[in-house]
Amino acid sequence: MTVITDTDIQSVALASSVTMSANQSCVKTAINASGSAPIYACRAWVNCNGVSESIRGSGNVSSVTDEGSNAYTITFTTAMPNANYCVSFSGNSNASGGGAHSYYLNAPFGVAPTTTAIRVKSNSGLTYIFVAIFA
């Protein structure tokens, strides 16, 4: 019988029926993560233009909708497991990163996060919007 260790798995293609935890040592080694703290992946992200709503790059985001008054709804391609996720939101009004901005999530306009979308808002128009979701 051959025994395969987690260090052997680094270069082996796994069948779709194999289940592997993100916190196994071979996964941490593959992504250069050290220590015993668990790994939590970004479940959705987007880099978009707040003026034209055009998406420059994204993962698990199907659309960005301008709701007016510098508010945007980010819609997920695949729903989150629940609405208790963490949102990281920032942006700039120009490529050089100039301008001071305040950022808001949901509360200013009474829109609760859902498993399929999140609404974000800034105090001024943004040419660069960056949102990341961790669940």
As a percent range, the share of strand residues is: 35-45%
Total helical segments = 1
Mean pLDDT, rounded to whole units? 80
Q: What is the radius of gyration?
A: 19 Å
Query: In oligomeric terms, what are we looking at?
Result: single chain
Unreliable stretches: none
Distance between the termini: 40 Å
Placed side by side, the strands forming the largest sheet appear as: 2-1-8-5
Main beta sheet strand tally, sense and closure? 4 strands, antiparallel
Number of domains: 2
Overall, the morphology is elongated
**Percent helix:** under 10%
Helix and strand succession? HEEEEEEEE
Could you say which structural class the secondary elements and strand pairing correspond to?
mainly beta
Q: Count the strands?
A: 8
Word description of this protein:
- This protein has 135 residues and is mainly beta.
- It folds into two domains: 1-39, no CATH class; 42-134, no CATH class.
- 4% of the residues lie in helices and 36% in strands.
- The protein is built from one helix and eight strands, in the order αββββββββ.
- The chain has a four-stranded antiparallel β-sheet with strand order 2-1-8-5, with no helix packed on it.
- The protein starts with 24 loop residues before the first helix and ends with a strand.
- The relative contact order is 0.20.
